[in-house]
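Thread: quick sanity check before group meeting

JM: Hey all, I'm pulling together slides for Thursday and realized we never actually wrote out the predicted structure for the chain we discussed last week. Dropping the sequence here so it's in one place. If anyone has concerns about the input, flag it before I start.
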Amino acid sequence: MDNLVLIRVAAVLSRALERGVLEDIGAEGLHRFRLGFGTERGRATLVVSLRPELPWIGRPSRPRRGAWRREEPFAAQCRRTLQRAVLRAVEKLGPERSIMLRFGDGHALVAELATHGANLVLLGAGDEVLGAARHPRAARERLEPGKVYRPRDLPRGLVDPYGADAEFLDGVLERSMRDGESLVESIRRKLFGIGTAAAELVVAESRNTGRSPGSILSERLRALELGQLDPVVVGPLDPASPSADGVDVEAVRLLPWEPLVCERALKLDDAAATAGLYHEAVELAAKVAQRLEALRSILDKETERLLGVENKVSADLRGFDDPDRLRRWGEALLAGLHAAERFGEQVRVPDPYDPGSRLVIPAPGGLSLPQVADLHFRAHRRARRGRDAARRRLEAVAARRVRLDRLRQVAAEARGSEGARDLEESMRAERIPVGLAKPRRRREAPDPVVRVEGVRMFTGPEGETILVGRTGQANDRLTFKVAAPEDFWLHVHDRPGAHVVIRNPDGRAKPARATLEQAAILAAWFSTGREDTGVDVHWTRRKNVRRVRGAPPGTVTVKRSETVRVRPRPPREE
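JM (edit): ok, ran it. Output follows.
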């Protein structure tokens, strides 16, 4: 978070939250903590994000959508220690990007917001470290429980610009520029806590007004401390809809004050709200970008897998070379029984299609010549069927690869959450199992990470989604992470095999008969009973299935079920 923006955020929070009672604190995700205060003006909310690349603190622009991660140990420790504590003050710790929330009972909470070094530290009486949200190796000694907390040391070679006069700052910058650095880089690298945004504002104003950079910076720092300046968001960001679809991260910036020349500047009621609006919009945009990147990666892997399938089927097709030769062998054996000469595992007979020549035909020992002929006729029929099936599959795989290549072009151009949704639908239409997580409670935030490993996807006769696990781990995940409680669950009776799930978003009492039969056939085929003539398949609702504690993944018990008997056969896609 920009250090100069943090000056104003700390001042605003100090006024808004002073004497507020901490009612709750919880983790909303891996990096995000939310604090709720009861104040004289009503409930106030504070968010601290420890996202390594862009940590921040401020007032959220959206209500809480996700459930608390109650199992998060640091949030639980803070809740036990600070709940119902009265906030005494909010203060910024010197030039460092850190804010301290000090409570009336002597405890304190420090938000360290340095990029790739963000942390939240709980302090006891006398500023003794009680715990921390992160435990980086570089700060292990500084944040060891029981030690007195001390802020980070000022890096060597950097100057603290806060309170320095203009002449001193100009001298530091002139000496740095003599070493070949630009003015912007000199401000960033020599003056501690002055980021790129502030450096560019100072340089632009210096060029437009002719004033020295030191005088402008000194004046701006005093104005920030006096509350005469507030941060602004420049660029196309709609405060009424801070959604990821409308945010161009490259075009939208948070600046510590409004530049002299600006086409569009956005400033909310206070600095904490402005910072919250910007950072939440950027986080949403990052989640959507992460989701799109995950979908593109899955699509690339599926295309690569399909190329491998195409090569394998082509090799199979080459293995079925000249199946008619087997038929000719059988015919030659039957036609030349009287003239056959058998030696070892072979037999020599006249060629009925080339008078005067003879054929040498494989003839396994222990079989009569008519039995050998029948063996070659059966092999001929199998080879013909295999060759025809391989050709059909090769055509289908090649056609699907063309569609996936076309879909990869669409994926490369997809933008925003709407583009991600459309891409997911197109991928599911190609039987790529994405977006399969079970429906979450309405308040919960969506997971941007797409995980689909180990799941086959099929479509039922009436358009239902049928999911089939590939391994024990995949079965466990499909049943207990992906399937909803009302989905239908199938498994072959008393045999190892795949877990099969029929999606049931409408909460029907029973699946359609044709869908149930297709899902049962899939369960039978993807089990050790695929060679049997008939297999019993149990089906029930997923909520009746339980894990077996201590057993391998995928081992379950079923509370109640019904049985359908089917004959295993491969799905068309196989």
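AS: nice. The two ends are 53 Å apart (CA to CA). The first strand starts at residue 21 and ends at 27.
JM: adding both to the slides.
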